[in-house]
Automatic annotation (TrEMBL):
One of its GO terms (biological process) is cytochrome complex assembly. Residues 1-18 form the signal peptide. Keywords: Cytochrome c-type biogenesis, Disulfide bond, Redox-active center, Signal. It comes from Flaviaesturariibacter aridisoli. GO terms for cellular component: cell envelope. SUPFAM superfamilies: Thioredoxin-like. Residues 228-355 form the Thioredoxin domain. This is AhpC/TSA family protein. Gene3D superfamilies: Glutaredoxin. GO terms for molecular function: antioxidant activity; oxidoreductase activity. It is found in: Cell envelope.
Amino acid sequence: MHSPFLLLLALLPFLAQGQQKTFTISGRSDFYNHRKLGVMVGVYPVYYNDFSYALRPGDSLPNPNPTVEVVDARFARAGTLRYPHPLCVFYFDAEKKSAPVSYYYFIEGGPVQIEVDDLETHKALRPNFRSAADREYRRLRKFYSSVVDTVTGAVPDLPAKQRLMKSYIAAHPDSYVALWDLVLDVSQARTDDDKRSLLANTALFSAAVKRSNTWRAFARDLEKELTLVVGKAFPELLVQPALSIATTTATHRYTLVEFWYSHCRPCLEQAPAWKEVYRQVKDKGVAFLGISVDKEEHRGDWRKAIETVGMDWPQFLDVNGVEADRINVRVFPSNFLLDEKGVIRKKDVTPQELQDFLGGKAGQ
């Protein structure tokens, strides 16, 4: 016969995770008055999150859209969550095609007050709170500060950071903060080995954390991404206009498939270099295919970017990034270099790296 006390202990992780906590975010911003800000709880893609915003006037269902209007220098959002989530604020500058973002903070429920200045130069939100999760996040950042650029947040040596994270998670297996930190590191993972190190660290969390929506979605996506590795065949894509990867690769020594979108600053900054490389290799059995993940409402911006940069290689539109999402391409720009059989030979090469590779293959 099972003890009721032992049964209660076994259920505690489920009960704790399932408890809904209400949060209210009250913000002030003189700088962005009468403009729209993104108040992001959790991360993209949204199915990693386990929270919901409260209904707003005109909503028939809880609205995941983080955009809020700043009126009289004030804005607000409210909702519920089950466990700590990161919070950041961003502003999409259509003219500059940039989206400056604040530092991350962790909320666990309750009232949250923040102030937003020019996010290009002031990343701090001056919050009125320091939740236990947020204090842990500050300690964690200090723990791995030796391998991270503390100004930009860039991780020049992701394997070194993941070795530190391995020891941290082993000592703190119930840490949702550590889990979110792994999620945020995906944008820094440029190689398959980087992704394998992230996936290995997900296995170290407690059973309670592994039952979270965030852990399950993140681990599943990492496993899916690792099916698209060097040596594997690249899949066909349903894009506009119609494209046959197999037909293109069969008639070229190499084919570069580049994922981008018109409001992606790094994509546009790199485009002139790709244009020069394409000019040099297009008559040497090398094909370029551009796949934009622009939204339907940005179709005009997509065409304008192609014309402005002068991308004179074939361009295709994956509306709303449906196909990119299907094969788990979520960092932009991303690219895959395929051989004549459609097999991935390299991933995420720079223009210079492609030139060097093709130069070394010139006599083969």
